[in-house]
Every structure is written in C-alpha cells, then in structure tokens.
Amino acid sequence: MNDTIQPKSSMTKRLSPLLLVPVLASCSAIDRIGHIGEQPELSAITNPQGVPGYQPVTMPMPAPQVAERQPNSLWRAGARTFFKDLRATRVGDIVTITINVNDFGTWQNSTTRTRTTSEDDTLGNFFGLQNKLLPASVKNQLPSLASLSGSTVQTGTGQIARLEQVNLTLAAIITQVLPNGNLVLHGRQELRVDYDIRDLQIAGIIRPEDITPQNTIAYNQIAEARISYGGRGQLMDVQQPRLGAQLLDIIMPF
After folding, report:
1. Contacts with 173 (C-beta within 8 Å, 6 or more apart), sequence order
2. Quick check: is 128 in a domain?
3. Which residue, among 9, 17, 29, has the nearest Cα to 250 in the 3D structure?
4. Residues 152 and 136 in one domain
5. Of the residues 124, 159, 194, which one is the last residue of a structural domain?
6. Is the pLDDT of residue 45 over 90?
7. What is the rounded distance in angstroms from the CA atom of residue 126 to the CA atom of residue 215?
8. How many CA atoms lie within 13 A of 134 on its CB side?
9. Model-level pTM?
10. 147-203 per-position pLDDT tens digit
11. Is 31 contained in some domain?
12. Are 130 and 241 found together in one domain?
C-alpha cells in the first residue's frame, strides 16, 4: 500500500503548474480589461544585446591573418572600391533585407489495413464426465465450447496543401562582427493598423560579399536565418483559443 502512495511534496510539484493557470489567466484578464478600447502599445526600441537571454553568436572560425599595412597607398587594404564603401561592415551599421517568400507544397498519403481472424474449438464428450461434473446449462454448450473471431479494418488518409507568400523589406542592424568577417544582424519592425500590430523580426549571419552596392541583401543569403512574422491585437486575440481550451488540449489524453 505504501509503495503506491505518492509523497505529498511530489504531488504538490506536479499540481503547482495547474494551480498557477487560473492565477496567470486572471492577471492577464485584469490587464486586458484595463486597456479596453485602447490600441496595443508598440514595443520600446532596445539594444538587442541587452535583451534577457541574448547570447553572442559563436561559429567555427579560420585562423586569423595579420593584415598588411600600407600607410602611403591610395588603396585601402580590404576595400572593395576605390572610394569609401558605404555598405554595412561594422557594428551598428544598417543593412536592408528583402524578404520574398513564395513557397508551395502538397503532401498526400493513404493507408489501408485489414485483418480477419477466426478460431473454433469444440469439446464433444469431455471424456464422459460431462453428465457427472457439469450442470445441464454447460453440457448444452459443449459442442461449441470455444469460438473466437475478430475483424479489424483501419483506413487512414492525410492531405496537406501549403501556400506561403511574404513580400517585405526590413532594415536590420549589425550587432556583431565574427573573427572571419561575417556579420551578425538583428532587425525588428512593428506596424500598427487600427487595433492590431504586425511584428516582423529577423536574425542571422551574412557575408559582406553578399551585400549589394545598394546595401541590400536577400533573405535566402542569410545563414542561420530566424524570421518571425506575427502580430498582436484584437484580430489576433479572436483567432487564439481561450486559455481553458488550450489547457484541455494539453492535458486531455484523447
């Protein structure tokens, strides 16, 4: 009996997340009630490196090379043009990113499985002891003492059609220069329309050589790209299930 009883502390730890859900839901509801009729606030402009959880990017780097100094030369070491290069190269510089996503995908699967089993066992006379040992109700069932049958049919069909199209332009800031010269960028753009905010975020690593003379770069030239396009506001709130429905979706086993 004692082995099946869970300690009180263990049960409390498991139930504590569930107990916090009504508290968090009530706090969120109170905050939303206090802003009824108001437009959602835009996020403050902050330093990406000061955001909690920010970590500098570390990647495999080649051995550093010592640059040759030419103080009396009109040609600057590492320059890609005779005049000053206006493309982003240092921390704090701005580069424009063009995002043109046009993806289409279709998947279709079909599976059918059928299984049928049947088994009949008879026991006729039961070695002549059926009249002495078994009651009449059982004796009448002896010719069909055991009869088993089963049938299983399983059919599954799945189909997915995906169409994504995003055309945006975003300015990002260089936040880090890696030892091999690659640039780490981070950009965020918020647009408020009536009572909804569209939020676009992008981060990744680019090569200076991929930046065009117009100081632009395509999204598909960004390594380790992280692109997020979402929003918040009244329309987004309507599209989200209620907290109770989300909780039931998590804990319900069926």
Report:
1. 48, 92, 93, 94, 185, 186, 187
2. yes
3. 17
4. yes
5. 159
6. no
7. 95
8. 16
9. 0.58
10. 567 777 777 777 777 777 778 899 999 999 999 999 999 999 888 888 888 889 999
11. no
12. no
Number of neighbours of residue 24 by Cβ within 10 angstroms? 11
| Tokens encoding 88 | 């982003």
**Phi and psi of 93, rounded to 5°?**
-70, 155
Number of domains in the chain: 2
End-to-end Cα distance, the chain = 30
As given in the structure block, the two tokens for residue 200 are: 């676009």
Query: By residue range, what is the domain housing residue 135?
Result: 115-159
Burial-class residue 55 by CB neighbours within 10 Å (0-12, 13-18, 19+): exposed
Same domain, 84 and 203: yes
Q: Could you tell me if residue 222 is inside a domain?
A: yes
Question: Do 184 and 232 sit in the same domain of this protein?
Answer: yes
CA-CA distance, 106 to 163, in Å (whole number)?
9
Could you report the per-residue pLDDT of 117-153, keeping only the tens digit for each? 776 655 555 555 555 566 666 555 555 555 567 777 7
Verify that 184 and 90 share a domain, yes or no. yes
Dist. CA 110–CA 135, nearest whole Å: 53
List the structure tokens of 18.
């569930």
